[in-house]
Amino acid sequence: MEQKSNVQYRAEKEYKNSREKFFLLLREIISNSIHAVLIRQNKETNFIPQLDLNITFDENQCKIELRDNGEGFTEKNRLYFEELDKKNLEKEQFNFHPLGQGRLAIVYFTDSSEYETVYKDKDGTYQKRTIPYPNTSDGLFNFDEFVEEMPEIKDTYTTYTKLTAYLNKQNTLGRAKTFFYKYPNSKAFKQWFIETFFPFIVTNEQLVVNIIFNGEDVTVKKGNIESETERKPFEINLAEGNKSFMLWLIKKGTQMHGENPVTCFARNLKADLSNGKLSYSIDNNDGYLLYLTSEYFDEYVDTKGEKIEIPIDDILKINKKISEILDIEFSSIIENNQKETKRNLKNFKKKYPSLETFIEDSNIIDDKKIVNEKDIVQSAIDEKSRIEKKFWNQIDREFENEEDKLFSDSEECYKLLNSSLHIYVKHRESVLKRLHMLIQKFDEDGNDKSELESSVHELFIKRGTTLSDSSNINHLHNLWILDDKFTTFSNDFKVKSTKSGQPLSDVYIWADDPEKTKQILILELKSTTNAHNAGNTKEGMIAQVKRYAHDFYKHPHKTLNWTVNTEQVQYTGIILARKSDIDKELTSNSFSGGYKPIPFLANSYYFEDNFSKDDNPRNKMDIRIELYSFEDIYELASNRNDVFFKLLKKEFDIE
């Protein structure tokens, strides 16, 4: 007979790392009661195995009463209660795999317990005993210390064992409260009961468990779940040889979404895999719980029945087999999910072209669950982040090894550049939309609208800005609308945007490369709705540009802070105006004629003109003047942007 102090030490050692696992107490006492009734059922015909579980708890106490109609503490059975680690041979025959240690949970998790039992003695007479557990004396449990008594009349024709456990101290009651916080009502507790003892329930037709949970009655039996349960037996060759498994599909009221766990059972009780987990990924409106049972698990579960110790390779093989079985079972669901995923992928590509390159279509479409747009975006962002981190870690390195040399030419680097260009081209598209809004003749109400020159100016380039370095933080402009050669600037290719009210043209662009011809471009931006001096007899738009050219010719340093021989400068003037204003300019009395249409544009013109150097009308300087309509420039820039998009999407070859 074990000593009480030794038992308490064993209990502390066994459960000290399981302080928050109050469920282990319920699992141990309930499984022992189930064992008892199933053993009796095997011996008697017309016997209905039954458990009655009554749980009451409040802020001050938790009381658990569990009664089973097993054989009670017969002379044979009582031997296993007087000593630990003594295996019950009858349980062994039923593959219950007893270790003789389950009662340690009662010692550890309760404050006081009591067994009440009615059994038949060796003469077949019904006897009753009531025993505290563990014994208040030094011994663990000694039947001889407790006098047999005659059972009450109502108990004369049945045997049973009833365990009553109390939890009222801070630690023990606190553990119970933590558990019941997760399962606060009879419905939730019933679900936990089924999940925990599922193999016992589903394989025993007659077993009935009546539960009273804080006054609420529920019943658990095979009939409750059998009609909504499917079995999928399979075998698989593992490290220990060929093993048999049973996969159970139990209908539940909620959907299956994403990764769905496969719950394992060992010795008919729920247990976790130590080295991994089993799961199946799918979205299914008809939800199922997935359970897996096998004697293979029974062989490798720990003493608490909590952890199954099998190799990771076996876990992977089992999971693969489960996936194969369920892929067939849910084939129509998977097909519909993949159709939905394809629609989401199509929408993703349309909305986020800069992220498309970071997604492998097959990886998305082949998924068995519905991959929503949000998940696709996140996956693309994660992949882009990984590549971008690699880019910054390697791009500026000296070529230390072959990998660094090849990264700038790699597919990953191409993806990053493609994404950046997509964003830039999309930015251009939004700028062009703003230009189109400025060009529109009427407002939303259909009334004539008037756009100020300053609105157009600010769209192309911020007023008062001088750009001489493309890395400058102020290098934010949209002069590319005019031509992509006006995208980046340098120390010998500059641009100046004048302030409002200055006696200067709107924008000057000049090239001062010592190896090339000096050039200056005078850009005059007119209102997109009505230029103030189009066709003006005193000074039209063309005459205005010529005057600005003359002023620069005479005072280059004053105009642009540029010391240059203006005789050696090539002059160009560009006027951006509405096509109606260009027509007005070219048909006015002040126009000298000679302007020719620019090829492939509808309302734009050019002429090799000149301006006066001084008061002598014979002293002329050549200047090429081009008049572009906003309509033409918008269409040209939009077409160019569309081509960029198609190139990035590889919609046509550039050969």
TrEMBL record:
Output one GO MF annotation.
ATP binding
Q: Which UniProt keywords are present, listed alphabetically?
A: ATP-binding, Nucleotide-binding
Supply the InterPro entries for this chain: HATPase_C_sf
Name of protein: ATP-binding protein
